[in-house]
Amino acid sequence: MAKRHLLLLLFVPGFLASSAIWIGAQESTPDSPPDNSVIRKVVEMVQLNVAVTDKKGNYVTGLGPSDFVVAEDRIPQKIATFEEGSGGTRSIDASASDKGNKEVAKSSSFLGSNASSDPASLVNGGAKASAPSIYILFDTSNYMYRGRGFVFAQDAIAQFVRSIDGPDRIAFYSYSRDLSRETALTADRSQVLHGVRATVNGDDSALYNALLLTLKDAGQQTGRKAVVVFSNGPDNSSMVPPEDVGELAQSEGVPIYMVSTHDAKLDAVTAAVFARISADTGGEAYFAKNWKEQEQAFTSIRDDLAHLYLISYYPQPNPNRGWRAINVKLAGEKAKQFHLRTREGYRPLPEHLSVGSANAGAGQ
Question: Which segments of the chain have a pLDDT < 70?
């Protein structure tokens, strides 16, 4: 138990990298005495990937921000940005958060020379959305090396990579007992395909360790993110439990898509864990009996990623610093016609004020 929590704590700094964090400085006024301290406040922006389907499972397109109702711990939230599919980010309201605007306006000197001087642009994520980041995690453990399953799995992943259009960036990782970062995030499909073909036989499976490290990497990126896992069997050597990995993915706002062979489904515990992790994070789980079903699963994931709505909001005041439940629904009659899928909640960063000397090291 001690090892479990020690390893998890190593990744806490990236827990909410999916939230946009703005830093503001407290300003002195003519009526107040000079203050050498700088107080930095954290303003979080929560991002949600939302899939909308009809009763037949077809994706619903053309919805607008007014069609969605978002609540956090039953507290209504105001949508700040909205994006459909692979389109650009749409600013909903330049004054979506007056407090957020003021904090951002104060923070331009802390954000660096590349920061926008327009508070509305910063609050609403800017005029352009960043390219989606897709992390593919491939099982190269001894579970995968049965018959020709490994070669078929490589073919299915390669076809998935080739089928992704647009500016999406892809990272390709493999794992057995350890994680191998075969290809860093890139828009160059040939590099990713080379990484897929270069994978080699591994040892025991430490899926949840590898997934935790992958989520940590994803947490360093902004904008739309997703992890696609291809696994052939149960985890038999990880130090962290799947529950911790699932909670981290929810807090990061990263949907996890699990593609597994039929062998994994024969293990009831593994099948249940795969289904739960994907459902809790807003992804999907697929159990493919053969290579054809593997290709169909990857095609389904590609289509899902292309049709997700990206919604963000600045949380309204909420005293709960623990797990916050998120509820997203459609307004009016659409709520009865369509089905929504997204993550269930997140755990915010601890509320704090960091105080340091503004003139420390200066003029001495």
Answer: 1-43, 86-130, 145-148, 262-264, 349-364
Q: How many structural domains compose the chain?
A: 2
* Residue type at 254 in one-letter notation: V
- Give the range of the structural domain holding residue 268, as residue numbers without chain letter: 133-305
CA distance 203 to 140: 8
The CATH number of the domain holding residue 281 is: 3.40.50.410
DSSP letters for 250-280: HHHT--EEEEEEHHHHTSHHHHHHHHHHHHH
Please check whether residues 230 and 318 belong to one and the same domain. Answer: no
Residues in the chain: 364
The neighbouring-strand residues paired with 47 are 312
The shares of helix, strand and coil residues in the chain, as percent rounded to the nearest 5, are 30, 25, 40
CA–CA distances in Å: residue 339 to residues 52, 113, 141: 6, 43, 37
Tell me the Cα Rg of the chain: 22
Query: Would you say residue 363 lies in a domain?
Result: no
Token representation of residue 197: 């073909």
The whole-model pTM stands at 0.75
**Mean pLDDT estimate for the chain:** 77
